[in-house]
Prior knowledge:
Blueprint: H1 6-17, E1 24-28, H2 35-47, E2 62-65, H3 72-79, H4 92-101, E3 112-116, H5 124-135, E4 141-147, H6 155-158, E5 162-165, H7 171-181, H8 187-197, H9 201-209, H10 213-225, H11 231-240, H12 246-266, H13 273-288, H14 296-309
Parallel strand pairs: 1-4, 1-5, 2-3, 3-4
Pfam family, one: DNA_pol3_delta2
Protein name: DNA polymerase III subunit delta
InterPro entries: DNA_Rep/Repair_Clamp_Loader, P-loop_NTPase
Amino acid sequence: MMLGHDEPWRQWRDALRGERMHHAWLLAGRRGLGKMGFAEAAARELCAEPGVPQPQGPHPDVHILTRLPKDEKEERKREEGKPYEVKRNITVAQIRAMQQRLTTRPTLGSRRAVIIDPADDLEKSASNALLKSLEEPPAGTFFLLVAHRPAKLLPTIRSRCRVVRFPALAEADLAGWLAEQAPDIDVKTREAAVRAASGSPGAALDFVERDLAPLDALMTRIVREGDQSFELRGQLAEAIGARPDRERMAAILDLARSVLAGQMAGESRVDWSNLVDAHAALVRLAGEAPTYNFDPGLLVMEIGTLLASAAPASERADA
């Protein structure tokens, strides 16, 4: 069981033992808290019935909808077991294909589960199509919606779900977990990863695996010193690389927000407005980036400029 999942499991298993299991669940919390792992384990537990052997591999009654490879080239990479890029959204065609499957009976027992990860990446038309299934769920069908940004979901979808919130970990717990998972990293890198992760085990491990420590140091310098010469922003762009994929850019955006949040928690300054405004702008940018045309060069410069704008007024860049 992953750290921080005790309460979600209690709620789930209490419901399983109850007389009437709610048909739709919203698993909410920041990225990297293990919500998808919970969803898969909970779905298998839901579908298991006494006396019915359960498969060790993929379960025929657990259907997972997630973002598909973005084109045929990326599809081939997936088939070959290589890293691949995905589409921006979960499409209405995927929802309709799932609904067609729900017209048949479950394979092994009387229940089946549909996992959507991340549900906050549903196309608008896909959200509307899903709503119909949530309003009139087929008998024995249960939905688990994984959401990093639940506010992006339609209110009518949220209102039909029972919400389970996944808490961020305390820094001490996260540091201990990371020391077990990545015992070879030095203490300084581990401390930076824990600080940047804001309580998310997945984000902390991502920080280590993507070698984000140099970016963390550069971003912190830009926020503290400003960057009137644009030199630090140039170094940041070079460190990020010319062709970062979407997942790396998502991690970099999370890191930038974490750097600003850390400054807000640890600094004493007369005027906080530029720091607060920059943080709000980065939050908006992180929410918009997955659905906009992906130009990594422009996005990196925008991140750097927002960080520079957060420096104390006397050190701010002329951006």
